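testing teh design pipeline on a random one, pls ignore if ur not involved
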């Protein structure tokens, strides 16, 4: 699965089928997850001091196929915006992606789509868990990393980094499950987010995308409810 799919599972309550963060925050984080995945795969990077593009702007290192249709579309979007700041690209990638990811997860039997109406008028959509095996395995990896305060796995590091940026690590992983307080768990997440789980060649790109998500959600407040 894509990092964005894993992140969406962690940010969707298994029982209610609703996101545990605001839609705008989830969309931004999903856009960041797509960009981080492209960076980890060597397709996208941030320009350095000796690049043709202005330092800190996004560039495409490898325009070839990624092996995933949605990720190919994301790469094409980055290509169209090459030379832009990470902020504008993350926002563009996050637009309308949540529904498409929910559809993929539903088609794969991971989630179950439910439709209804609020007050008998407004359409409502929910995606409760249908098969939680994959999400359980992801959460187990996150728990191990947070318990130890470190990880060498780029995907686990990326997920924790995004959850930390959203201030949602304690929602995706129950602090008591890893023998930590909420404060301690978030501290471990911060340490991992700033750690060396990513190769130096893509660290700049990942740090930029992480900063974009933090900046955009720094004044937001999460609704109540348990994690996915």
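output:
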């Amino acid at each position: 699965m894509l990092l964005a799919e894993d992140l969406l599972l962690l940010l969707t309550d298994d029982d209610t089928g609703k996101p545990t963060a605001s839609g705008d925050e989830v969309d931004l984080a999903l856009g960041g997850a797509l960009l981080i995945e492209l960076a980890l795969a060597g397709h996208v990077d941030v320009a350095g001091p000796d690049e043709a593009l202005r330092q800190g702007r996004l560039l495409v290192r490898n325009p070839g196929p990624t092996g995933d249709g949605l990720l190919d579309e994301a790469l094409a979007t980055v290509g169209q915006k090459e030379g832009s700041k990470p902020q504008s690209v993350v926002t563009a990638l996050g637009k309308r992606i949540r529904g498409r990811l929910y559809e993929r997860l539903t088609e794969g039997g991971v989630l179950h789509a439910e439709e209804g109406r609020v007050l008998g008028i407004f359409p409502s959509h929910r995606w409760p868990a249908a098969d939680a095996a994959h999400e359980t395995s992801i959460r187990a990896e996150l728990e191990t990393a947070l318990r130890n305060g470190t990880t060498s796995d780029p995907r686990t590091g990326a997920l924790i980094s995004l959850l930390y940026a959203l201030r949602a690590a304690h929602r995706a992983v129950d602090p008591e499950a890893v023998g930590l307080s909420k404060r301690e768990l978030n501290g471990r997440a911060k340490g991992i987010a700033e750690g060396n789980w990513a190769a130096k060649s893509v660290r700049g790109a990942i740090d930029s995308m992480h900063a974009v998500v933090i900046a955009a959600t720094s004044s937001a407040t999460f609704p109540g409810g348990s994690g996915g």
